[in-house]
UniProtKB/TrEMBL annotation:
Protein name according to UniProt: DUF998 domain-containing protein
Membrane-traversing stretches: 6-24, 54-71, 83-102, 123-142, 148-168, 180-197
Keyword terms of this UniProt record: Membrane, Transmembrane, Transmembrane helix
Residues spanning the signal sequence: none
Record organism: Pseudoalteromonas marina
């Protein structure tokens, strides 16, 4: 059973890419460059219920299972246990983001309560996958290539988060920069998961 749990991080990394693509096929005229991933399940979306069923709920479970695996398989190594906790937090917030949709208008000046919860959960998700690779970067427990790659993924996430903020101001292509920012976090998860399995 533990051997199967070790692969949940890899599965989650692949699932999120496929899940967003598949869900978008049911959303007429959806733009990956101009629209956020969360707009797939936003209020009034043609796939408001389908999107979290494809993405948030199964992904949340995969994150939680992988985090649990890290904790139970590295009980003598606190940094890895903390990484496991961060992955579990990421999973729980993924569920919350699915249950509480964002508003249909991503640029609304008066967001609903659901949208505020969604936004704060998304922020915690972002932070959890910054803390986790930071731990790897500064832990001598991990090999140098993994530490360097973790640092690279953090820098990539920060860079495209900055680009995302600018894109929001200009109302240009925030969807593209959101995907690239989160993409670096998912890339880190994929690389780290392969290290764990190897």
């Amino acid at each position: 059973m533990n051997n199967l749990l070790a692969y949940t991080g890899i599965v989650a990394s692949i699932w999120i890419v496929l899940g967003i693509y598949i869900a978008s096929r049911f959303y007429p005229n959806y733009s990956h460059s101009k629209q956020f991933c969360s707009e797939l399940g936003a209020f009034g979306s043609p796939i408001q219920k389908l999107s979290p069923a494809i993405n948030n709920y199964p992904l949340g479970a995969l994150f939680v299972l992988f985090g649990y695996y890290l904790i139970i398989s590295h009980q003598s190594h606190l940094p890895t246990e903390v990484i496991g906790v961060m992955v579990i937090i990421h999973g729980i917030c993924t569920w919350i983001c699915g249950y509480f949709p964002m508003d249909a208008d991503a640029y609304t000046k008066s967001p609903s309560r659901s949208c505020k919860i969604h936004t704060w959960s998304g922020l915690i998700m972002l932070l959890s996958f910054i803390v986790a690779p930071l731990i790897v970067t500064f832990s001598s427990f991990y090999p140098l290539p993994l530490r360097y790659l973790s640092a690279f993924c953090i820098l990539g996430c920060f860079y495209f988060s900055f680009k995302l903020a600018k894109a929001l101001e200009l109302k240009s292509v925030p969807g593209l920069h959101q995907r690239l920012s989160y993409g670096f976090q998912i890339l880190w998860l994929f690389i780290y998961s392969i290290f764990v399995v190897a």
